[in-house]
Amino acid sequence: MTASEGGTVLIVDDDREVVRTYRRYLDDTYTIREAYDGEEALDELDDDVDVVLLDRLMPGRSGGEVLDRIRDRGYDVRVAMVTAVDPDFDIVDMGFDDYVTKPTTRDELRRTVEGLLELDQHAVDVRKYHSLLVKAAALREGKSTYELNENRAYTDLESRISDLEATLDAEAEQLVDDSRFVATLRAIDTAATPEDTDG
Questions:
Q1: What is the pTM of this model?
Q2: Distance between CA atoms of 37 and 193, rounded to whole angstroms?
Q3: How far apart are CA 169 and CA 112, in angstroms?
Q4: pLDDT of 143-182, one tens digit each?
Q5: CATH superfamily placement of domain 3-113
Q6: Domain segments of the chain: what residues?
Q7: Cα dist. 185→81, 96, 112, 149, 153 in Å?
Q8: CB-based burial of residue 176 (10 Å sphere; 0-12 exposed, 13-18 middle, 19+ buried)?
């Protein structure tokens, strides 16, 4: 899911006015789900959710606990903590992808969601790149240089690898410049067991 294709955003906050405000900021571009406490957030979460905007301080199950449950359940979803709590050293071990301190503006929230969707696209491209490299290596192992050079499918494969390398370089540069380097690494780590996205 890329930012240009929209996506599904789950807004989690016990303050209903905050949820309504964030919905106004985002619902012209994204599909919005709402939750007003941690349990409801976990009930609303499924594989269709691309981004979670998660309040940290909520009655009952805290945002940190919800985040732990999300990661324990293995959901491949990007999570931004959107909270009035100033960051402290305890955030080092938390599995979020971005941290936004309230109050936040429309532009900041939209940039956050868009950036996290771009991060997801980067992870997809990493998996695809790995898959192509595996195919090329297998062919080089079993075929002569002449056979490889004379085969149109292989030369197309090499071209796709080269194009994707350029795309990944551009994406990585943008994500690092956008202060999401740690989240980029987490996305790549998720891609460490690649799916063969090209059949």
A1: 0.67
A2: 33
A3: 21
A4: 899 998 899 888 999 999 999 989 888 877 776 555 454 4
A5: Response regulator (3.40.50.2300)
A6: 3-113, 118-190
A7: 18, 12, 17, 35, 32
A8: exposed
